[in-house]
Amino acid sequence: MNTSINWIKSMVSGLENVTDQQFRDAMTLSGTKVEGFTALDKNLDKIVVGQIISVERHPDADKLVVCQVRVGENEQVQIVTGAPNIIVGSSGQKVAVVLDGGRVAGGHDGGALPADGIKIKKGKLRGVESYGMMCSIEELGSSREFYPNAPEDGIYILDEDAVVGEDAIEYLGLHDTVFEYEITNNRVDCYSVIGIAREAAATFRKPFNPPIIKQTGNLEDVNDYIQVEIEEKNLCTRYTARAVKNIKLAPSPEWMQRRLASAGIRPINNLVDITNYVMEEYGQPMHAYDLDKIADKKIIVRTATEGEEFTTLDGQVRKLDTSTLMICDGQKPVGLAGIMGGENSMITDDVKTMLFEAATFDGTNIRKTTKKIGLRTDASGKFEKGLDPENAIKAMNRACQLVEELGAGEVVGGVVDVYPNKKEKKRIVFEPDKINTLLGTNIPKQDMLEYFKYLEIEYDESKNELIIPTFRQDLLRCADIAEEVARFFGYDNIPSTLPNGATTLGKISYKQSIEEIADEIAQFCGFSQAMTYSFESPKVFDKLRISKDSDLRKTVVISNPLGEDFSIMRTLPINGMLTSLAVNYNRRNKNVKLYERATVYLPKDSADELPVEKVEFTLGFFGEGDFFTMKGVVEEFLDRVGARNKIQYNPESSISFLHPGRQANVIYDNRVIGYLGEVHPDVTESYGIGERTYIAVLHIPEICAISSFDRKYEGIAKFPAVTRDISMVVPKEMLVGSIEKVIEKCGKKMVESYRLFDIYEGNQIKEGFKSVAYTITFRANDRTLEEKDVTNIMNKILSELSKMGIELRQ
Amino acid sequence: MKERLAQIREKALAQIKATDSLDKLNEVRISFLGKKGELTEVLKGMKDVAPEDRPQVGQIVNDTRAAIEEVLENAKKEISSKMRELQMKAEVIDVTLPAKKNNVGHCHPSTLALKEVKKIFMGMGYEVVEGPEVEFDYYNFEALNIPANHPAKDEQDTFYINDKIVLRTQTSSVQVREMEKGHLPIRMISPGRVFRSDEVDATHSPCFHQVEGLVIDENVTFADLKGTLALFAKELFGPDTKVKFRPHHFPFTEPSAEMDVSCFKCGGTGCRFCKGEGWIEILGCGMVHPHVFEMSGIDNDKYTGFAFGMGLERIALLKYEIDDMRLLYENDIRFLKQF
After folding, report:
1. How far is CA A198 from CA A67, A211, A379, A449, A481, in A?
2. How far apart are CA A371 and CA A215, in angstroms?
């Protein structure tokens, strides 16, 4: 909400000496946040009212003229200008003149205003001296929008009543500052000048003087002009109407135009300006109908029929349904309640008699309708917050008062006021002790009551109840009152303490501790942490070669996504990882290693249930390293989380986006806890990664289940170890893992460790076989092993291996 | 005999002194003390010495031997240390040659910011609790005093799955779930991913992270809220950090506030970083709304509480002076390596 500080100050006495900055700080600290302010006279210096005495041709330039301008009683300056509306031979125009050494806000083209304005110095234009400049409205920092009678291109000509030599900025009403407020949605009352002024008065503890509304109207009775009936009493809480006849359309006075401009509203004519002015001042939107176009002298507030069509005054045809509230006359709809009037009843230049409407509607209904028909207006923006019906009548009478003051027409006597359920003031028990307990303060009851006076909250001492004004719809209980007390006591004045309750333990969950280890190990192994979006495109499944009937294609779907690319919740962490790697590849980053703790979302069968959310510890890289580099990271991690049983790798994992011959499920205690592999070349190609890329995914819930932080010291071996090397010729497709199984099975506790030290395929080895060599270390923890112990085990191992078609290499 | 011994001694010491290597020193040792050495030869002549003189001569022989050995030993030490020095001189390396690094990976800046926040609150006894990201409308809105048709629901630009399920717009939903469990007192923070339907730009992301905090106990006051968050700000942004609380409105707290911290770049005098304000808005907070207590079944007459929430990316952007939020989700390694 933007508004002129002068408008506010006109309603609060004693703020004359408060600076803009002081006002801003104080208002912000009492809860009316000022987002910023702009002084309209910033960079406007030495600008006076001048009068053109003569305009002569410039001797050396066709497009320039030389003017003699009176700028004071006995003061005259010569000014050269190229403005098209200053014509040779003319005289008498009053203009704003910036004198030598002065400053204007902007250039005549109306572009962005420079921070420090533009300095004006005397100088020569094509050889003729010029001692200043006559200003266009753009040079004064404003625009034709707010000064409708300014010329499109040229000097702004002031009215006759401007006094030569006086401050032109004062005359133009630019000694003002526009404040921008951030009003929270609970403070509907502050979407108005009166509301903000009331807060200002309370903040500075100064008297609040809202406009005094006088009796208005002639001796006629408006009930002879119009009758109002509300069919939907839940949706229209009050409807007030008055009539104005003998309308004389004219521009509104300068002061009104200036105030509207401060709120960003373009002046139009006296009637439109009055409705806008009252909307700003009271926060109550009003609507004006051409009464001669209202059939049967009747207004009926009802809902539309299903599929009903209606043309709003912007010429658009709107399709409505039975929830849309309409303002109708005796025969037809004439307005969309609270949103926009109809074309059929709009005010035109030849209007004679007019109907003013100030009504209040159900906010939710208005909001739903604006969404449904896609039309949001200044008025609906206010109505949807739920306006105070008590305010409507004030706004109505204020508007009629302005009509009389401005001579815009003859107000008909009386008011039509249909108000089915009068809004009563709410009462809240006053509990000063509870308030102090909640705030941690010791504010005297009397001080609290003093704050309330400024807020128009009354105190019923006999019942110890606070009586809340109807415009404060946000005050419902003691906590709300506590906030009012805190605001005016000052949040700054509330002490700072620490809670003194029982000691609690600062801790993280088991899952979080596993995730911390994942971070640690990934980073130790050279992987940096990535973060990617949780939603993606349904197209990723094809990109990742996921089969059409895969469960992974069952997704949680966002009903209002930002676009198809962000429309489903991921069921796989792969797309984010590959996309990030591709970004790096395209930017020519080398050896990129990334990891993400990516949540995936797996829907349940019933749409009423929340999906299963599972964190996938996902690693990916391209550059130096291979499958076994990734396998190493997996094993480092499992070791660190205490999963120290044998890890199995099953190559029959059939993961569609991985290389069919270079992938495996990671198996621990017969459970699949993740997978790893080289990314399928089709997939790297479609992501545009031109290098072999490796991925590992470990399911954090599975890791949590198998992890253990029990550590037991097992002693350091006291007895010597015996080692044996075996070299074998093994069928090519046989996994070394199956050899290791045999070593473990036969060796039992005696085998301390084994290590593959050579693997070879080639010339010396017969076709279809490979050579594999292991060092096996034997040790007992209770004695020195003898030759025969070791030989026994070795024989067992060898006989098992030979059953598998493995030969010892000679 | 005595003269002979004295001569040997002189001669040996002179030779030792003239020696400059361990090998030569060994030769000297052998030539005097070895089996066929001069001193050994003298000993062999002991049989010619008169028996009454033998002890005396023996003594002199032993003294001579000891003296030579001592000098030998000293010379050996001296030469060894000289040689080591020479060796080390020859082994000088260029310490400015490149390091052999393990290329340890880096933390994402949002995680880094979360770590700092977590550390501070865990130190104050807060438990770190997580909850679902796809959440019931009830926990995200209704239980937080944002009923159906509340304008705040529109303002938060919520992603909907269906009528009842949303992508959570705030991690306050986790707080409600904790309150429902009813284990009091509560001191918790809930970090996590949240979603708002904002188009991606330099300051917006449809998916970002929040940390929200909740304290519920007997006698918790607004003053406690101020004290706790002031302490937090000093820990996070430095001991000279000042805080300012401004009244604000949130549906789930009353009274509510926004907290600004003095600009940690200029200290509050106003600079480009704080847009000349001297203050930077950092979080929203307030006393837990009575209606939220009612919804979760905790007795608001006995217990009070405060809650606060902040955007992690905002903290990260401010603390690490990152000027574009999109960088956080691109995962360019050159960006990540800076954290």
Report:
1. 50, 12, 22, 16, 17
2. 39
A666/A703 Cα distance (integer angstroms): 11
Of B106, B107, B127, the CB nearest to A506: B127
Rounded to two decimals, the ipTM of the complex is 0.88
Amino acid code (one letter) for A700: I
Q: Residue A627 and residue A341: Cα distance in Å, rounded?
A: 70
Tokens of B258: 């926004």
- How far is it, in rounded angstroms, from Cα A403 to Cα A288? 12
CB-hemisphere CA count at 13 Å for B201? 4
pLDDT at A541 over 90: yes
CA angle (B229 as vertex; A502, A496 as ends), nearest 5: 75
Residue A580 tokens read as: 């990030």
Neighbours of A535 (CB within 10 A): 24
Q: Indicate if the pLDDT at residue A810 is higher than 80.
A: no
What tokens were used for A431?
């509990």
* Runs of H (alpha helix) within A283-419: 363-373, 378-383, 389-406
Residues A408, A149: Cα–Cα separation, whole Å: 19
Query: In DSSP terms, which residues pair with A58 in a beta bridge?
Result: A61
B234 touches chain A (CB under 8 A): no
Contacts of A666 (CB under 8 A, 6+ apart): A634, A647, A648, A649, A672, A673, A674, A675, A676, A696, A698
Tokens for B174, please give them: 């986790």
Tokens 């044996």 -> residue: A724
Q: Is the alpha carbon torsion for A102, A104, A109, A111 positive or negative? A: positive
How large is the C-alpha radius of gyration of chain A? Answer: 41
Distance of CA A454 to the CA centre of its chain: 33
Cross-chain CB nearest to B336 (options A437, A529, A566): A529
Instruction: Look at B222 and A384 and tell me if their CB atoms are within 8 Å.
Output: no
Cα distance between residue A341 and residue A350, in whole Å: 18
For helices A627-640 and A510-524, the axis angle rounded to 10 degrees is 140
Assign A178 to helix, strand or coil. Answer: strand
User: Which of B140, B161, B184 should one mutate to test binding to chain A, selecting the residue with the greatest count of A CBs within 10 A?
Assistant: B161
pLDDT digits (tens, 9 = 90+) for B44-54: 877 788 888 88
Report the run of H or E that residue B37 belongs to, with start and end.
none
Q: What is the C-alpha separation between A383 and A380, in angstroms, rounded? A: 5
Q: How many residues comprise chain A?
A: 810
Could you tell me which of A197, A215, A217, A216 has the C-alpha nearest to residue A207?
Answer: A197
In angstroms, rounded to a whole number, what is the distance separating the alpha carbons of residues A210 and A9? Answer: 11
Q: pLDDT tens digits, residue range A156-190?
A: 999 999 999 999 999 999 999 999 999 998 899 99
Structure tokens at A122: 């005397």
Phi, psi dihedrals of residue A186, rounded to the nearest 5°: -85, -15
Query: Which residues 85-124 of chain B have a CB within 8 Å of chain A?
Result: 102-108, 110-111, 118, 121-124
Q: If residue A417 lies in a helix (H) or strand (E), which one and from where to where?
A: strand A416-418
Residues of chain A contacting residue B261, judged by C-beta atoms under 8 Å apart = none
What is the residue type of A719?
F
Nearest to B331 by CA among A278, A563, A126, A618: A618
- B186 token code pair: 């509560």
pLDDT of B59-118, one tens digit each? 888 888 888 899 999 999 999 999 999 999 999 999 999 999 889 999 999 999 999 999
Q: Please determine, for residue B154, whether its predicted confidence score (pLDDT) is greater than 80.
A: no
Distance CA A742, CA A805 (A): 13
Integer Cα distance of A755 and A737 in angstroms:
12
d(C-alpha A297, C-alpha A293), whole Å? 9
Q: Which amino acid is at A195?
A: G
Q: What is the pLDDT of residue B207?
A: 94
